[in-house]
Amino acid sequence: MFNGVFMYLCIWASIYYYEIEDIIPLSLSGTITILVGFIIYHSAKAYHVSSGMTKRDGYLIVTFGWVLMAFSGSLPYIISGTIPEFTSAVFETISGYSTTGASVLNDIESVNKDILLWRSLTQWIGGMGIIVLTVAILPILGIGGMQLFVAEAPGISPDKLQPRIKETARRLWIIYVSLTAIELVLLMLGGFNFFDALNHSFTTMATGGFSTHNSSAVEFSPYIQYVLIVFMFLAGMNFTLTYFGVHGKIRKVWENEEFRLYTLMIAVVTTVLTAVVYNSGWANGDLEKTFRDVLFQTISIITTTGFVSADYTLWPHFAVMIIFMLMFVGASAGSTAGGVKIVRHIILVKNAFLSFKRQLHPKAIIPVRLNGKSVNESVVYNVLAFMMVYILIYTLGVVTLAALGVDFITSLGAVATSLGNIGPGFGLVGPMDNFSNLSQPVKWVLSFFMLIGRLELFTVLMLFTPFFWRRIH
Amino acid sequence: MFNGVFMYLCIWASIYYYEIEDIIPLSLSGTITILVGFIIYHSAKAYHVSSGMTKRDGYLIVTFGWVLMAFSGSLPYIISGTIPEFTSAVFETISGYSTTGASVLNDIESVNKDILLWRSLTQWIGGMGIIVLTVAILPILGIGGMQLFVAEAPGISPDKLQPRIKETARRLWIIYVSLTAIELVLLMLGGFNFFDALNHSFTTMATGGFSTHNSSAVEFSPYIQYVLIVFMFLAGMNFTLTYFGVHGKIRKVWENEEFRLYTLMIAVVTTVLTAVVYNSGWANGDLEKTFRDVLFQTISIITTTGFVSADYTLWPHFAVMIIFMLMFVGASAGSTAGGVKIVRHIILVKNAFLSFKRQLHPKAIIPVRLNGKSVNESVVYNVLAFMMVYILIYTLGVVTLAALGVDFITSLGAVATSLGNIGPGFGLVGPMDNFSNLSQPVKWVLSFFMLIGRLELFTVLMLFTPFFWRRIH
Q1: Using one digit for the tens of pLDDT, what is the confidence trace for B126-150?
Q2: Which of A351, A381, A402 sits opposite B321 (nearest CB)?
Q3: Which DSSP helix (H) or strand (E) runs through A400?
Q4: Which of A140, A222, A286, B328 has the CA that lies 20 to 30 A from B128?
Q5: Contact: B325, A399; criterion CB under 8 Å
Q6: Could you tell me the pTM of the whole model?
Q7: Which residues of B touch A392 (CB under 8 A)?
Q8: Of residues B158 and B177, which shows the higher confidence score?
Q9: Number of Cβ pairs closer than 8 Å across A and B?
């Protein structure tokens, strides 16, 4: 119903830009979406009252909720005729809601502005959905160590679960909306018109990466690019930390290990790659532009936003490889970024390191410590399981794409960028290309990967296990 | 001392082939090696008597034992002038002892036969070393779940550790030597002379892959290739299972999950790739040759032998990708094969699958089961740690090589093939090339990777942790 309302809101753009032909498609999409939502809401309410919610219901509701959003969200594209083909329209929608930013549109600038607004909105809505998902739902389902950072969330009171979740989500949404508004103003101060500023603010804060320009951020002014850099960085931060930062608890931000590594990685990668790329003669030896391009791409990939300011595939091999590896990093948990997330890498590396110590002293209990506290062994186990499944699913994805005839480099990049909700990849889906030329089966596979990546793998994949459907309790 | 004796034995080849110039180098190498061994043996014996052995001593002795072997084993190459450069000679020796099979020799056929015999012997000795290491030492050090299959070893009696280990090692060595002898005879029946048959038997059973021919197995007759296929397969089996098989306990072999998956993977990969490669017009549509080439390469890579019967880099992308992935499989634990090993993959995949079940029922205890028995949680944890370290180290290796100026594809292949003790890779170190053109730093890095891969990572890397050197107890 919420999505349907947003479709209706896009009609303001139809009116302002005289795109009268889209008013009926948008109204129709909005009406259908709200109606379907209304029916489901009331059936679900009845069910909830009669039997209560189980953990199983949680997995089903989240997964099918997102699938339903993918289908209803594609209505404006299909009915308006912007993307008439069903597969491509669903791909674009999932790419939106999952905040990936991979597009099938060849000429973005020729698309009506109201539809582009809807496209950017799908990402912004997706970002909002992810915040509530990570704060409220994934920790209850116990997925991949997502409990880790939620324990730090503001407004915590373990005995009152319901109010805490609502309150936490509300506070983080305020941060999200405020940052979007501030970015909007800063972009307009840099010469962006309201439409461009609004769309890019939506897709930055969602770490989505849809742009209203064909060449993404390549032709933007240095000022605009720096604004995007700052807000991509903020969008990749744990919103809980931002909340603390805003309330003056700077120390709490700086003492957070994930935030420190996030900052450190960006600093180190940018420094090294600036040197490497500068030496290769990039930008005719313009050091500032080289630094800016490298910083932009590093932050864009690590935060899984996917804006493109430079064709990184033209950089030296070493730089390309690092960019590829960044696709498996992901930014902070509790942000709108996708991928593995830095906190998981911290747990994994610390645990790998400590496993040497455990081997030397098999009887000693040697816990992983994070932010000065011992991490529960079951959380470490969950993180290990998450990483294993991530690698397994990634490998399966690459094999599947290769079996569908996609070349090796494109497969490696397309699956990494889909699973990590990034956007651009390598080969045929490089930063200067889009996903329109891929075959329909490949688009479905990648849509599936965007969805499972966004829902932290376990939420969706759980439905494919036999024991999920077996009623034990 | 044992190695020194083998160097002396190579003098028989010098005499038989009139390679008189090598008699002094071989005698000198043998004498130095035996002398150094004698000195260390007696110092160590004194130490052992005075203070007993700790677990720490285990790591140190194994690692430095292998490093010492690498240096002493290179003496015949250096003193004879076959490989005068120190770095390359050590690389070739480590490649031998670690049963990798990566070579720096450009023209193998021009090398004196006694030196080639020594080269093959390093692999055969390495294979013997690995058997005793996996049976006797790694389980005590508790490395990466190596306890798993040793519990199944013949002659087990937990209260009498010392005699059990000696007896087990003796029984497995008998299998090893017998299979080498049988292969020798079968190769000679196929027209090989004694020298070629002996060398290839040595390097097959060690899953080493050094050949005495420049083109490896490309020009061998189908009969010879099939013999190699069979014995590579046997060398990649758990020698304990072979022992049971020889003693008529066929059921015990077939019920072993690792063996079943080993067989199944080879069957599935060979079937699929035969179809793919055949369709690409390989071998002018000769189905038998295509099947043989695919089967040969599949077994050669999965067992980490590294013989080459066909340039697999010319196959379709999909086949190349599968070959690359096979480099991360490894054959059975308790064989002479390197790499991750299939039993670890079984544990990892089962555990990943069960982690879904655990998420659904957080309070239930859901153990991983192998061969019908529950696997201890600490073993699963060890396997997970091993895999994480493997991935971490692999990634670091690829970055290091790229930073040293090696291109992306070559880096990916060279590190995978070194760490997995396979032999051929991709790019500049593809199946038709060798490692001679790499720079000295790259050779050292790869030598290090061959060593840590062979010693199951933890044995060597332990020495690089700060807590290893801290005396807590």
Answers
A1: 999 998 888 777 777 777 666 665 5
A2: A402
A3: helix A377-403
A4: B328
A5: yes
A6: 0.92
A7: 349, 352
A8: B177
A9: 109
Asked if A321 lies within 8 A of B411 by C-beta distance, the reply is yes
Q: Give how far B95 is from chain A: nearest CA, Å.
A: 26
- Using the structure block, give the residue that is written with the tokens 């005590």: B140
Q: Test A389 with B355 for CB contact under 8 angstroms.
A: yes
Which residues on B lie below 8 Å from A362 (Cβ)? 142, 378
Q: How far is A320 from chain B (nearest CA, A)?
A: 9
3-state DSSP helix/strand/coil % of chain A, to nearest 5: 70, 0, 30
Note the helical H segments in B52-160.
55-73, 75-80, 86-97, 113-132, 138-141, 147-150
Tell me the chain B residues in contact with residue A348 when contact means C-beta distances shorter than 8 Å. 388
Tell me, rounded to whole angstroms, the distance of Cα B175 from its chain centroid.
17
Give per-residue pLDDT as tens, B200-227. Answer: 999 999 999 999 999 899 999 999 999 9
**Is B344 exposed, middle or buried, given 0-12, 13-18 or 19+ CB atoms closer than 10 A?**
buried
Minimum-distance CB partner of A465 among B356, B391, B465: B356
Residue of A nearest to B377 (CA): A381
Burial of A12 (0-12, 13-18, 19+ CB in 10 A): exposed
**Whether A356 and B467 lie within 8 Å, measured CB to CB:** yes
Q: Compute chain A's Rg from CA coordinates.
A: 22
Interface touch B356/A467, C-beta < 8 Å = yes
Return all residues near B80 (Cβ < 8 A) that are at least 6 apart: B21, B22, B25, B26, B112, B115
Average pLDDT, consecutive stretches of 10 residues, N- to C-terminus, chain A (473 residues): 93 92 94 93 71 77 91 95 95 96 93 95 94 80 65 46 71 94 97 96 96 92 97 94 90 91 97 95 92 97 96 92 94 92 93 89 87 86 91 95 90 95 91 92 96 92 87 55
Q: Exposed, middle or buried by CB within 10 Å (0-12, 13-18, 19+), for A279?
A: exposed
How, if at all, do strands B369-370 and A369-370 pair? unpaired
ipTM of this predicted structure: 0.90
| Of residues A359, A385, A461, nearest to B351 (C-beta) | A385
Structure tokens at A201: 């603010």
Q: How far is B405 from chain A (nearest CA, A)?
A: 8
- CA distance, residue A407 to nearest chain B CA (Å): 7
Q: For residue A458, which residues of chain B lie inside 8 Å, CB to CB? A: 356, 359
Contacts of B359 in chain A (CB under 8 A): 141-143, 382, 458, 462
The pLDDT mean for chain B works out to 90
With an 8 Å Cβ cutoff, are A351 and B385 in contact? yes
> Residue A411, Cβ neighbours under 10 Å: how many?
28
Measured in angstroms, the CA of A142 and the nearest CA of chain B are apart by 6
pLDDT digit string, tens, across residues B86-130: 999 999 999 999 999 999 999 999 999 999 999 999 999 999 999
Angle between helices A342-360 and A377-403 (to 10 degrees): 120
A318 closest CB neighbour out of B320, B403, B468: B403
Asked if B403's CB is within 8 angstroms of A141's CB, the reply is: no
Q: How far is CA A426 from CA A274, A307, B204, B413, in A?
A: 20, 14, 39, 19
Specify the residue for token string 């005495």. B212
Strand partners, B370: B373
Beta carbons within 10 angstroms of residue A307's beta carbon: 30
| Residue A180: C-alpha distances to residues A15, A186, A299, A317, A327 (Å) | 24, 10, 18, 36, 24
- In this predicted structure, what is the pLDDT of residue A104? 94
Which residue in this structure is represented by tokens 């010469």?
A: A191
- The reply to whether residue A321 touches residue B356, judged by beta carbons under 8 angstroms, is no
pLDDT tens by residue, B401-456:
999 989 888 999 999 999 999 999 998 899 988 999 999 999 999 999 999 999 99
**Rounded CA separation A93/A175 (Å):** 25
